[in-house]
Structures are given as C-alpha cells and as structure tokens.
Amino acid sequence: MVESWLGSLKGSAGEAKQRAAEDAAQRKAEGRRKGGIILNQKDVLTGSWDASKVLFTTIGGQLRPITADDLAAFRRNIASAQSQTGRFSKGITAKQVIDWSAGIVNGTQAALNGGQKSDLDRAKKEITMAVPTYAQNSADGRSAKVRFITNAGPDSDVSRHHVLVEFMNYGPEAASGLTEPRKAAMRLRQGPLKIECDCGRWRYWFRYLATIGGYNAGRAETGFPKIRNPKLQGIACKHIVRVMAEVQSGGATLGFLTKLMDKAKSSDEAKAVLRHKQAEAEKIIKNQAKRTTGNDIKTSEQKRLERSAKNAANAAKQAGKPQREKAMSKKISGKSPDEREAALRSAMAVFGAVPTAKQIRDVRNA
Ligand SMILES: [Zn+2]
User: Does the first or last residue of the chain, that is N or C, have fewer Cβ atoms within 10 Å of its Cβ?
Assistant: First the structure.
C-alpha cells in the first residue's frame, strides 16, 4: 500500500510541532550543559572557551580535537558560505535549491563531501512522494507557511518527514487584484522561499548554513557544524529537494497553492487557511507512486542542455525539408487571396501536384 507511510493527516501538524519542540529542547539543554559540545559564534571568533568543553572536528578527514588552525579554516568557510548564500537573505527559490543540491554553485560543479551521492541523487531515488497538507498565512500576512509530508528514506527510523516551506511573496500576491489565483500561484512557486525539515541531516548539516544564509524557516541554529559539515557544503536535505521539485513543477502542489490564493483573494484581509483532506492526499501520493518520469528532478543546466538538443534537432529537420517545398514557399506571393491561390496552384503544378484544402486556406489567409 502506497499510503502506509503517509499515515493520518489528522495530528500530523501536532507530530511536526512535537518533533520541533523536542529538537529545540535538546539543543537548548546542550547549549547550557557544562562541557557541552556546541561551538558558538564567539568560540569560533575568539578560540577561547571553558576548558571543560572539549571540541572535535572532522575537517581533516578524521575526528580530532579542534586546533587554532581549524578555527581559522572555519572562519574562512563561514565567510565563503555567507558570500555565496548571502543572496538568499530574502529567501531561496526552488530552482536554486535543486541546482545547489546537485553540487552546482555559480554554474560550476563543486566537489561533494567525500564523493558522496548528492542530496539531489538521494531525492530522486529515495524520496519519491511529497504532498502539501496544510497552509496558513503568517500573523502579519506577509508570507504563508505550507506544511508538506514526504516519505522517509529506506534507512530511516520514521516513516514520514515534515517539511515546512514559507512562501515569502504570499502577501503581495494575495492582496493584488491584478492576477487570478492560478497565475498568482504560478508566480508564488517561482518566488523566494524559506525552508525547514525535521530530519537529522537538516539539523546537523544544514540548519546552521540556512541560518547564516537567511533561508531557514524554523529554529535558528548558531552552533557551527564542526563534525558533520565543517566545510559548509550543500544546501538542503533530500526531503526538501523533493518538495522543491513538487513546488517547481508538481500539479497537485500548484492546485493546492491555487486554492490557497483563491481563498486569500476572497478574504477581506488576504488571509487564508487551507487543509488537505486525507482522501485528497492519498489520491495525490497514489498518482505520484505511479509516475515513471516525474521522479526525475532536473537542474537548470540539464533543462538548458535538453532545450538546445531539441533546437538542434528542429534545425536539422528544417534543413532536411525537401527543396521543392522551400522553393514553393518563396514563389507564393500575390495581393489578393485569388492571386495567391493561383500562384500556389501553378507552383505545385510544376511538380505535378495539387494543393490540399488546408494549403489553399493557408495561402488565402496569408
Ligand atoms: Zn530532511
């Protein structure tokens, strides 16, 4: 049964909130614990911390205590990550998450941590379904948060993950009377977003990066990921990458956002709350489970290559068109429809052919 991982939508928001609360509580306790292992901003900057705190890193490849040189390297990595992700301070787009998760940064392929599979590769293979379940505008009405549920990967200890996506352009789109809901939804899904997932990879690899990059939708993380991601590589986990693919081009997600915009535009205060019913969500993942091509997630570069291959194929096809058709199209000219039809007939007569009804219609309307 494909729905088995989805579970009940009723209570799913509660589950997401509970996981977030547990995460926040654990983090808080670790930050306060004597000898706790959080490397905070001041530690990175000054290199002086309580002697009871013994901190390790994996930056050279092996787990070992942090040295002054490591701190210098962390500072360089923070500066570099901030200059790269600084552009996301007003949100990141679905397209950018997909491109960056393939390891492509500024148009070039960056090396991935230890030659591991990229989060994009993992999303394509392991996270094949994602469904929006709940949406609500923020208190100030500027943005809207949409909750998604995805299936979990094969080695996970849970059956589903909760991904939160904040659509930063909700307010202006909801308040505008210039676009109908579907067009507003289409713009919304291409616009800036903030993101969050409840998985361990987001927590230990990316939450810090998203916090300093300004695209984090949930709890801020100020502890440097010295063990898991000291080089600050990547952008988001496989669950988020799958959700980004659905935001970018999924029909069910577009339908959900269209309904949300419709509600928002019908409301006096541009407010909207939208909930998917269990049956609707199950229908969506049933369709997603059946698809054979939709699981592919394409980066901008792949799309560009496909477009240019298609253009080249079209050009070759044009070049291969029979000479007589080309010659004919040149000859057909005339002021009146009758004159043009006569010109077409005589041009085709040279080849012993007669024009079809469509060809006559076209030339008369030319
Ligand atoms: Zn995740």
Answer: N
Average pLDDT of the chain, as a whole number:
88
114-146 pLDDT, tens digit each: 556 789 999 999 999 999 999 999 999 999 999
The rounded Å distance from CA 20 to ligand 1 centre is: 13
pLDDT band at 323 (very low <50, low <70, confident <90, very high): low
CA of 200 relative to ligand 1 center, distance in Å: 7
For residues 245-251, average pLDDT: 95
pLDDT exceeds 50 at position 236: yes
Q: Compute the distance between CA of residue 193 and CA of residue 169 in angstroms, rounded to an integer.
A: 8
Report CA(43)–ligand 1 centroid distance (Å). 28
Distance from the CA of 26 to the center of ligand 1, in angstroms?
18
Give me 300's structure tokens.
């901008």
Question: CA-CA distance, 346 to 340, in Å (whole number)?
Answer: 10
Residues contacting 241, CB < 8 A, separation 6+: 97, 98, 101, 119, 120, 122, 123, 127, 297
Q: 309 φ, ψ to 5°?
A: -65, -40
For 149, the enclosing helix (H) or strand (E) is strand 144-151
Work out the pLDDT band at 342, boundaries 50, 70, 90: confident
| Strands laid side by side in the 144-151 sheet | 193-197, 160-167, 144-151, 130-137, 273-275
Distance 201 CA to ligand 1 centre (A): 6
Task: Give 198 Cα–ligand 1 centroid separation in angstroms.
Answer: 6
Task: Read off the pLDDT of each residue in 166-175 and give the average, rounded to a whole number.
Answer: 95
pLDDT at res. 106: 46
Please list the residues that pair with 167 across neighbouring strands: 144, 193
* SS3 state at 168: coil
CA of 365 to the centre of ligand 1 (A): 58
